[in-house]
Amino acid sequence: MSTDPLTTLRDATRAFAAERDWEQYHTPKNLAMALSVEVAELAEHFQWLQTGVASELDDATREGVRQELADVLLYLVQIADKLDVDLYAAAVEKMRLNALKYPASRETEPTPKA
Amino acid sequence: MSTDPLTTLRDATRAFAAERDWEQYHTPKNLAMALSVEVAELAEHFQWLQTGVASELDDATREGVRQELADVLLYLVQIADKLDVDLYAAAVEKMRLNALKYPASRETEPTPKA
Amino acid sequence: MSTDPLTTLRDATRAFAAERDWEQYHTPKNLAMALSVEVAELAEHFQWLQTGVASELDDATREGVRQELADVLLYLVQIADKLDVDLYAAAVEKMRLNALKYPASRETEPTPKA
Amino acid sequence: MSTDPLTTLRDATRAFAAERDWEQYHTPKNLAMALSVEVAELAEHFQWLQTGVASELDDATREGVRQELADVLLYLVQIADKLDVDLYAAAVEKMRLNALKYPASRETEPTPKA
User: Fold this and answer.
1) Which pLDDT belongs to residue D2?
2) ipTM, 2 dp
3) CATH (one of 1.10.287.1080, 3.30.530.20, 3.40.30.10, 3.50.30.60) for A5-101
């Protein structure tokens, strides 16, 4: 009995697609395309903002954004499922690679340009 | 002490950005734009495939896809954090809305086409 | 003998794909996916900018942006070609629709709601 | 008096934005974000298709696609205008670079894998 959110969502999206006979459409490629559409719907909320800080968003926009974030996560979970990717393990590993690629500067001075 | 993957990643990305003084760049708008770039890097692996089923992906592509899925999750977690969105709760709620919008067919027979 | 830029580019991209036997990959769907990848490469140049006004871009970025704009146009021309869409006619028509949807000059007369 | 489609559209979009006092929103960054949203609306028409060849599209979808292609062109023209990019010249130059990067194979035999 799992209480891990990502596993719970994986199982729920599997059942949801199966009940609607949608697996035939859910190739990784099509799901990646659907993911990009959801991300654009998220971006649409921000496109004309001056700077895009959180305080520029009104309540209706925040609720819209929340739903798009949910859609992004749901498609992400489904692509990972189709390709047997453990999302959490992949993310932890990617953060390790990022830490090597972008070492934290120990000094607080601005990076010299020359 | 949390063992929830999404909370763990939220805390890890917070620390990562703080150590590099990157919070100044991380408006929700900029993070949404960065998310859309990562999703495109994911899509790029699929763009010329015939149908895009999982078996069309070779091992190198699968590893590339895995890293892009990780990047997508990491940006998603950061946007949600900036906007105080509980990603798991939002996804569960969205699935309930989706179930109302797309009711599962109650009969198990294939949908007749005519 | 055409001097219309869009027709010239259409003919040039047709020849380019034919010489490389790439037509087999160039379904409208795949080209749309490739277009979205190029647009993301364009967006990448802007993602961490404070406001994104033109003066924030240095010369190297401007040259990169120029090349991505070219890529976007080239894929756009190819999708339109596959679907027999006259891009210019479609754009002129869309501007007419936009003018109805977003009427100009709020001062002359209030927009009638019915 | 220009009959070049891209110049005509540039002038038309300039006037359209000026009449609505929209220039303040039209930073290159915001226009790039809007472009990515339009491209996603284009992609949405293709996302669940089996292979995405032109014959899979019904008439309503074709009309929707035509309008999205127009939107993509209109935003592309506006970004190029803000950054003083000659889209046609940039595309011709990019095709020359692409020809160097991907030389046309003169022989018709399949590329050996090893």
Assistant:
1) 56
2) 0.91
3) 1.10.287.1080
